[in-house]
Amino acid sequence: MSISLPKPLRTSISKPFWDNIAEGRFSLQFCDDCSRAIFYPRAHCPFCFSNQLTWKEASGQGKLQTWSIIYRTDHPAWQEKTPYVVGVVELTEGPSMLTHLLIEPSEVFYQMDVSVCFITIEDEVLPFFKAKGDDTPWF
Ligand SMILES: [Zn+2]
């Protein structure tokens, strides 16, 4: 018996992010008033409190700032993928994002260049980050 993975939680605010992911596009909210990029999705800019936010396609590029190697998961469906890397990527546009990294634990290093990739698991397109330029199929 296979165990289903937990699905991303969509709210009215985060729905555009997931709709774009489903189409293979990585997007961020940008503030119309101060121009800064925002992640996670919000109703108001955390810098100037404007509610004029616009979804725009983003580079999907960034640098790895910190990480953990996961040996035991909080969900049984991920256990067969252990050990794997979860970390914080500082996106080129500025915000930080906690994400699952498709990088061998022995090859991960501080400030490594990473880029987003999209993988369909159980009919759900999910964003992961890989070492920039890595074409290894992971799943
Ligand atoms: Zn702002």
Automatic annotation (TrEMBL):
Which Gene3D superfamilies does its entry note?
A: 6.10.30.10
> Any idea where the ChsH2 rubredoxin-like zinc ribbon domain is?
18-52
Q: Which SUPFAM superfamilies match?
A: Nucleic acid-binding proteins
Q: Superkingdom, according to UniProt?
A: Bacteria
Residue ranges of domain ChsH2 C-terminal OB-fold in the record: 55-117
Q: Where are the transmembrane segments?
A: none
Q: Which PANTHER family match?
A: BLR3430 PROTEIN
Q: Would you tell me the protein name for this molecule?
A: DUF35 domain-containing protein
User: Which species does this protein come from?
Assistant: Lentibacillus persicus
